[in-house]
Design goal:
Layout lengths: L1 E4 L8 E4 L8 E9 L2 H8 L16 E6 L4 E5 L11 E4 L4 E3 L6 H21 L7 E5 L4 H12 L4 E6 L12 E4 L16 E4 L3 H14 L6 E6 L12 H5 L2 E6 L7 H17 L6 E5 L3 H6 L5 E5 L1
Parallel strand pairs: 8-9, 8-11, 9-10, 11-12, 12-13, 14-15
Antiparallel strand pairs: 1-2, 3-4, 3-6, 3-15, 4-5, 5-7
Helix pairs in contact: 2-3, 2-6
């Protein structure tokens, strides 16, 4: 069968002939697989949860049809037999059946990034309806969905922060912070947020912590900072004063911190929200045969590979 194949962590995957997948589980014909940042780190051998095995077919999730004709969204375990192939093996317990007329590209594009904020709010903190949320890195695919997820789950006020705030104009935001120009005063309107969903980390997160804590009208009020992504750097300085002088609480949300059973338990609701249009994602379907070219292209939309 044809698949994207990684044989060198320093090079993009190539379109190649590989053996049909084997092992436990159920074989599915893959219809769409999302090219997520997590997939890029998998193919580069840089993600903390990966085994570093080569060769490998990348891809962590997708939409496919099983042997009984059931359309499924599936999440794969750590495996070298990923979803960027004509077929793969899935554990049905890590999948959710979809309506036969489901938009496979939208689901393949949206489930993974929507899951990041959905799980953070549903499984990593106690999120109360009416709470105020700040999305740090709101211009990316996952950040844009995080704004929508926060609204859907009951946030009363949502602020977006991005280096390109003009990309947030179409979102229903109560306030916007320009990360490229943000100084202490820029955080005044966002200071009293209850939750930060952080897709940025690095130096911008450190500056934001100081700015938010300084701007809070009640520094003892709890502030849940959920670290999800790290596009600005894998490490960030956490000012000791921000922890001592406020109710700041930092937790992470990602593979390992959320049990598999919890992830699977949320899949039907996320799939339903995407299918109903309550969550919207800008999908860019591309043929799997173009994997090498697509891999190095800059993209504003979430790329989906279709075998």
């Amino acid at each position: 069968m044809k698949a994207a194949l990684v044989t060198d962590f320093t090079r993009p995957p190539r379109y190649a002939e590989v053996p049909a997948p084997t092992g436990p589980g159920v074989a599915v014909t893959v219809l769409a697989a999302g090219l997520h940042p997590r997939v890029r780190s998998q193919a580069a051998g840089t993600h903390y949860a990966d085994r570093g095995e080569l060769p490998l077919v990348p891809g962590l999730d997708g939409v496919g049809r099983d042997g009984e004709g059931v359309l499924r969204y599936f999440v794969l375990p750590d495996t070298p037999q990923g979803s960027m192939a004509e077929s793969t093996m899935i554990d049905p317990r890590r999948s959710v059946a979809l309506p036969d007329d489901a938009d496979v590209a939208a689901l393949a594009a949206g489930m993974n990034p929507a899951m990041s904020s959905w799980l953070a709010l549903r499984r990593r903190i106690r999120f109360e309806p009416g709470a105020s949320v700040l999305v740090l890195g709101a211009a990316g695919s996952a950040g844009r969905l995080a704004v929508q997820v926060a609204r859907l789950l009951g946030a009363g006020r949502v602020t977006g922060a991005a280096r390109r705030p003009e990309r947030l104009a179409d979102l229903r935001l109560d306030a916007v912070v320009d990360l490229a120009a943000a100084d202490g005063s820029a955080w005044a309107e966002a200071g009293d947020v209850d939750v930060v969903l952080d897709y940025v980390w690095g130096a911008p997160a450190s500056r934001a912590m100081v700015g938010l804590v300084t701007a809070r009208s009640d520094r003892g009020r709890p502030l849940d900072w959920v670290q999800i992504g790290s596009v600005a750097g894998a490490s960030a300085e956490v000012p000791s004063a921000a922890l001592r002088a406020s109710g700041l609480r930092i937790v992470g949300s990602g593979q390992g911190s959320v049990p598999t059973a919890d992830i699977v338990g949320e899949l039907p609701a996320i799939a339903a929200a995407l299918s109903a249009g309550d969550l919207q994602v800008d999908a860019d379907p591309r043929p799997l045969s173009e994997i090498e070219r697509v891999w190095t292209e800059p993209a504003d939309r979430r790329i989906v590979l279709t075998p």
